[in-house]
Each structure stands twice: as structure tokens, then as C-alpha cells.
Design a protein that fits this description.
- The complex is a heterodimer.
- Helix content of chain A is 64%, strand content 0%.
- Chain A contains 15 helices and no strands.
- Chain B is mostly helical.
- Chain B folds into 2 domains: 102 residues, no CATH class; 215 residues, MetI-like fold.
- Chain B is 73% helix and 2% strand.
- Chain B is built from 13 helices and 2 strands.
- In chain B, a hairpin with a 7-residue loop joins strand 1 and strand 2.
- Classes of the chains: A mainly alpha, B mainly alpha.
Chain lengths: 354, 330
């Protein structure tokens, strides 16, 4: 469902129905013969649907490769302070001595050297390698946190609407449609600076964590609808099943019904939505910074690094460094997330055809 | 049918009103003071008060809210310090805080730019995307299919700002094949219009075409495995009839929905495309208005965007009833 991920120019819509439809078949398809493990003589092992999906995922080479890329990225991003210490530079330190009079790096290859592996950025003279690592750290941190919060909110709202039903359900459906009618991207680019400026301290400075919190909050407020729709649909279809009815007849409490009976059967679509919402949030966050809204100087950010490349696109010699390096890094990151998300969907629903 | 359209339109109008109210209170109720921002650093209280009066921000919030919405339908008068009151005729979206220009005339100037980008781009992305997807579904497993899959994967993971910069770097600054995009009207200079817009069109079309290819391929594959297609083949209909008349028609319906919503969404402002290529459309003005706290312009761009999004939804819903005979309206 990576059509949700590409650009800020569009809302995240329509895809929810498709995921929902595909997932409706998950439960049945686990028992389908084409997915059964080769059975060794005399050793028939019962496997849970989760185990089967995991085995399918592990056998998918594309999934393993993209998981490798992402695992490496996460490792680098987490170890960023350690890398910074070993590398011996600071991502927010400007090297004006390495820039010429019009602010371009001196030397070939964007000023790359033993000290600055990918060269330095024009105008501000930051080390591009460290900016990249710390920029990815900011972007990934925001995207993952926002996805976790938005999907959790969506699950709560969806379960509530689906399980309780009645007027609460009608309210939730209406509100979900209403939220989807908002031109989210315009709203976000207008709100991030206004909200951030309200959080300024007495010197007019806005702490970095407050900016980050504003972005995460906005992504959460406008990001829960897809999950809520899918979960609601699933819960409604499960609510009337015999096993749920049996549990109800046996006098199970609400908590037991929700956590033991319903949620374990909805986790597959939730996982798919979650894994595809991370790349969507990565692109959105970078889009905000690209418009110089979002995360501002001096905090490194992938989107702003790309913006810097865009403003230096007329300098032909610098293009491979300041344009291609950050742009392709972001592209590879998003591609890996999308491929892994697709693989997760295929593993959970082997009938789906890409 | 008529009842359905009326009901849908009524809901749409209510939604728009709700969006406009939320937007109004979010921006105008924010304690951020545009008068202070306009006035600059060395500014006394009296100047700020004067500016606020000019902006109509000295009145209580509910009054401002009613005035704004009344202005939309019947027009309104703006008090001006020491001058005659300024009348703002019917679809009044107030005046830009920055230039004192009526916001309606800003939109009248910006929207044709956005529309030119979106309509041209949509023509390309729909034709390329859908035909690529359909053909690769019909030729499943061939080299053509695999290339199409690779193309759609790349496009679906390539943020538009990344692709647009690559286009600029290659065609404008690298090979010097095209001028830096500069908008001219279609009627004034058709060749210049195309030259200015060809890069934005391709940027937008590449990203969307990839998604449409992906979507139409999976829709077509799903349809081709349906029983009625097997029946159609079994009774000896020609390949052409089966594919075009039976499969294509069923596969295209969900794509119509998504296309409608995408085009409607983009008509409110292709923010990133416009910013990168320096085209002064709706999104470009919105981004400019934000740091200045130019609320009337921000408000108007959000409203126009919401209008197109909501209108697209209504049109798609009605269209759906026409192209998909299974849909029953009630």
C-alpha cells in the first residue's frame, strides 16, 4: 500500500479499504494447503498462524534484504553519538575555513577528505556524513514515534466503535470521514510554525523537543483514521462469530473479550498498516522540513538536507554530493520500508497478489 | 439518484462549514499576533492597535467569525483607519494582511497555475499509469511486467521533492535543455506554457503513475481471476472483448475513486511541486503566508483545498453509481 507514502501532495485515503479487504481473508488463508511447510515423515508440528507468517517472511529474499538495510540504518542511527565521537567532529559545527568566499566547499568532490568523508555542505560548512546520520536520526525518531501513537489511537478508536456500536459507532464513522476531508498537508504546514511559536520561551527560542512534539502530535491527530477504519471493520465482522458469542455466553468480561478474543485476530492488518505508515511519515516529515517548516536549524534533518541540495542545484560540481547523497539516502530508506511492508502483508496474507 | 446527489451535497456543505469553523478558530484564536509580526521590532502599542483595527482583529472572536462567514455569502465592509470603509463583494475572503489585496484576487491568480500543473500532470499519470498497469497484468510474468513492477516500486518510494530535484539537476542545470520553469498563461503563449510546465507535469506524473500502475495491475489481476471472466472466455468471446469489455470495466472502478480524490486533493495546491519549481500557485502562496501569520490567505487556501477535496468526493460517489451497476443508492 505504498501509494500512501509518496508525497505530501495527497491524503492517505482509499488504501484503507483495500488493506481491510485483503486482511479479511487472513484468518482463513493460514490453513490453505499451498502455504503448509514440507512435512517430514512422522513429525507433524502444529504451528500458529503467526509462526507460519514469520517463516514465510524469512524465506522472502526481498524482505530479508530490506530488513537488513533497515536494521543497519537503525543501528547506525542509534549509535550516532558513538560514531560522532569516533569520527571526531560535530554535526552542528560549521567549517567556514573549508569554504571559499561564496560559500562553496574548497577542493574536489564537495570537499571530501579523510576528515570529512562525504565532504561538507555549502554555506554552513557542516560535515555531510554526520549531518546525514543525525538527520536520519531525527527523521526516523519522529516517524516511528508518530506511527506508534497514531496506530495505537486508531486501534483504540476502531475497537471502541466496532465493539460498542450504536450511536458511538455512528459518531466515530462521521468523525473519521470529517478528519479525512481535511486538507491535512496544508493544515500541517500552517499549524506547525504557529503552534511552535506559542511554545517559545521568554527569549523567543523554541526548544527542539517542543518542535518535535508538535510534529508528532499533528501526525498522530491526522494519522489514526486509516487504522481506525480497518480495525472497526474487522471487529464488526468478528463480533458475531461463534467463538466470540461462546465467550460472551460463558460470561467473559469486557477486557477478556477485547484482549483475548478480538484483538489477537486483528493484529495482522494492524501490523501491515503500521509498517506502511512509517515510510509515509518519513516522507511527510521530510516534506515539512523541505519547506523549511518542521525541524529548523541547527538540528540536522534529512528533509532540510535535501532542501539545501535543492538550493544548490545550479552548482553542477556539487550535485553528486549535496543533491544526490541526501536524496538517494531518503529514497533507499523509504524503498526498504515499503518493500518490507509489502513483504509483511504477503506473509500474513499469502493469497494477495502484488 | 437526484435525492442521493442532494443528500450527498448537503453533507458536503456541512462538512465544509465544519472545516471552515475549525480552521477559523485554530488560526484566529491562536494567541499569535499578526499585528506584532507586521509591525516589526520597534513598534509602539498605538501602531499595533491601529493595525489590528485595520485587520478587523480588534473585535471579539465570535463577531469576527460571523463577519468572516457572512462575507463569504453576502460580502462585507472593512473599516479603515482615517479612510473610507472598503467594501468587499460577495465571495469575500477578506484582505491579505501583507499586501491588502483582496484574497479572492490572489486566488484568481494562483488557481489557474495550480490547475495547469494538476490537469496536465493528471492526463499523463492516468494514461501512463493505468495502461502500464493493465498491460502488465495481461502479460503477467514477462519482462514487460517485471519492468513495470520495478518502475512502480521506484516511483512509489520516491518522494516528489527528490524526483523534482533530480529532474531540475538533469534537464535544467545539467543538460540545459529546458528553462527554469516560469509560468505564462496558456492563451498568451501556448509554447511557453508547455515549456514551463513540462517538468512539473513529469515530476507529478511519475510519482502518481507509479502508484496507478501498481494499483491497476493488482485490480486487473484480481478481476482476471474472477469466475465471470472464465465464463466469458468459455463461451468463446474474443480476447479483446473479454479484456476490454468485461475485465477492464470492472477493474477501473476503484481507480476512478482514487483518481477523483487525488485530483481533487491536488487542485487545492500542489504545495511541494509549486515550491520546487517556483510556480506561484495555491500551495506557493500558502507557504509564503505562513511565516507572516497572514491568516486570511492561509484560511482561504485551506478552504479552497477542502472545497475541492469534498467536491471530488461527492462527484466520485455519484460517478460510482453510474459506472458500477452493482452500487445501489439509498
Amino acid at each position: 500500500m505504498s501509494e500512501t507514502t509518496t508525497s505530501g501532495d495527497r491524503g492517505v485515503k482509499a488504501t484503507s479499504d483495500i488493506v481491510g479487504e485483503m486482511m479479511a481473508s487472513t484468518e482463513l488463508s493460514v490453513n490453505a494447503p499451498d502455504v503448509a511447510e514440507p512435512v517430514r515423515a512422522g513429525a507433524i508440528v502444529g504451528r500458529s498462524p503467526g509462526q507460519l507468517a514469520w517463516m514465510r517472511l524469512r524465506r522472502d529474499r526481498v524482505a530479508v534484504a530490506s530488513a537488513g538495510v533497515l536494521g543497519f540504518t537503525v543501528l547506525v542511527v542509534l549509535a550516532a553519538p558513538l560514531i560522532e565521537w569516533l569520527y571526531g567532529d560535530d554535526p552542528e559545527r560549521g567549517h567556514s575555513e573549508l569554504l571559499n568566499s561564496i560559500g562553496y566547499p574548497i577542493g574536489v568532490a564537495g570537499g571530501a577528505s579523510g576528515d570529512h568523508w562525504l565532504g561538507i555542505t555549502p554555506q554552513r560548512g557542516y560535515d555531510l556524513f554526520l549531518q546525514l546520520i543525525f538527520g536520519a536520526r531525527t527523521s526516523l525518531g519522529i516517524a516511528v514515534t508518530a506511527s506508534v501513537l497514531a496506530v495505537s489511537l486508531g486501534v483504540v478508536v476502531g475497537v471502541l466503535a466496532g465493539y460498542v456500536g450504536g450511536w458511538i459507532d455512528r459518531m466515530v464513522v462521521w468523525f473519521t470521514d470529517f478528519m479525512l476531508a481535511f486538507p491535512f498537508f496544508l493544515f500541517a504546514i500552517a499549524l506547525v510554525p504557529s503552534l511552535s511559536s506559542r511554545l517559545a520561551d521568554s527569549f523567543g527560542e523554541v526548544a527542539v523537543w517542543k518542535r518535535i512534539a508538535v510534529i508528532i502530535a499533528l501526525f498522530t491527530v491526522f494519522g489514526w483514521m486509516t487504522t481506525a477504519r480497518i480495525v472497526r471493520g474487522q471487529v464488526i465482522s468478528l463480533r458475531e462469530r461463534e467463538y466470540v458469542e461462546a465467550a460472551r455466553a460463558a460470561g467473559a468480561g469486557t477486557a477478556h473479550m477485547l484482549f483475548r478474543q478480538l484483538l489477537p485476530n486483528v493484529w495482522a492488518p494492524i501490523l501491515v498498516v503500521f509498517s506502511l505508515s512509517i515510510p509515509a511519515n518519513v516522507t511527510l516529515e521530510a516534506a515539512l522540513s523541505f519547506l523549511n517548516i518542521g525541524i529548523t536549524e541547527p538540528t540536522p534533518d534529512l528533509g532540510r538536507l535535501i532542501l539545501q541540495g535543492a538550493s544548490n542545484v545550479s552548482n553542477f560540481g556539487l550535485i553528486p554530493w549535496v543533491v544526490f547523497v541526501p536524496a538517494l539516502s531518503l529514497f533507499i530508506l523509504v524503498l526498504a520500508f515499503n518493500l518490507l511492508g509489502d513483504a509483511v502483508r504477503d506473509a500474513l496474507d499469502p493469497k494477495s497478489s502484488r | 439518484m437526484l435525492r442521493f446527489i442532494l443528500k450527498r451535497s448537503l453533507i458536503a456543505i456541512l462538512t465544509l462549514w465544519a472545516i471552515s469553523s475549525v480552521t477559523f478558530f485554530v488560526f484566529f484564536a491562536l494567541p499569535a499576533n499578526p499585528a506584532e509580526t507586521m509591525c516589526g521590532k520597534n513598534c509602539d502599542v498605538r501602531t499595533i492597535a491601529a493595525i489590528q483595527k485595520n485587520l478587523g482583529m480588534d473585535k471579539p472572536l465570535p463577531k469576527q467569525y460571523l463577519d468572516y462567514h457572512a462575507g463569504l455569502f453576502v460580502g462585507r465592509d472593512f473599516e479603515r483607519q482615517g479612510r473610507e470603509a472598503q467594501h468587499c463583494p460577495a465571495p469575500c475572503l477578506a484582505y491579505s494582511f501583507r499586501t491588502n489585496e483582496p484574497v479572492t484576487s490572489i486566488i484568481g491568480r494562483a488557481w489557474p497555475v495550480t490547475a495547469s500543473i494538476v490537469v496536465g500532470g493528471a492526463v499523463i499519470w492516468l494514461t501512463v499509469g493505468i495502461s502500464l498497469g493493465m498491460f502488465s497484468a495481461l502479460r503477467r510474468g514477462t519482462v514487460f511486467d517485471k519492468t513495470a513492477i520495478a518502475f512502480s516500486l521506484v516511483g512509489a518510494s520516491m518522494p516528489i521533492y527528490v524526483f523534482a530535484i533530480l529532474l531540475l539537476a538533469t534537464f535544467v542545470f545539467g543538460l540545459h535543455l529546458l528553462p527554469y520553469p516560469h509560468f505564462v498563461g496558456l492563451l498568451e503563449d501556448p509554447v511557453g506554457w508547455v515549456k514551463a510546465l513540462i517538468l512539473p507535469w513529469f515530476a507529478l506524473a511519475f510519482i502518481f503513475a507509479a502508484q496507478y500502475a501498481r494499483l491497476s495491475r493488482s485490480q486487473m489481476l484480481e478481476t482476471l481471476s474472477e469466475d465471470y471472466i472464465r465464463t466469458a472466455r468459455a463461451i468463446g468471446l474474443s480476447k479483446r472483448t473479454v479484456h476490454l469489455k468485461h475485465a477492464f470495466r470492472a477493474a477501473i472502478t476503484p481507480i476512478v475513486t482514487i483518481a477523483g480524490i487525488d485530483i481533487g486533493g491536488a487542485l487545492g495546491g500542489a504545495v511541494i511541486t509549486e515550491t520546487i519549481f517556483g510556480l506561484q500557485g495555491m500551495g506557493w502562496y500558502a507557504v509564503r503566508a505562513i511565516p507572516n501569520l497572514n491568516f486570511p490567505v492561509i484560511m482561504a487556501t485551506v478552504l479552497v483545498a477542502a472545497f475541492f477535496l469534498v467536491a471530488a468526493n461527492v462527484i466520485v460517489d455519484c460517478l460510482y453509481a453510474v459506472i458500477d451497476p452493482r452500487v445501489k443508492l439509498n
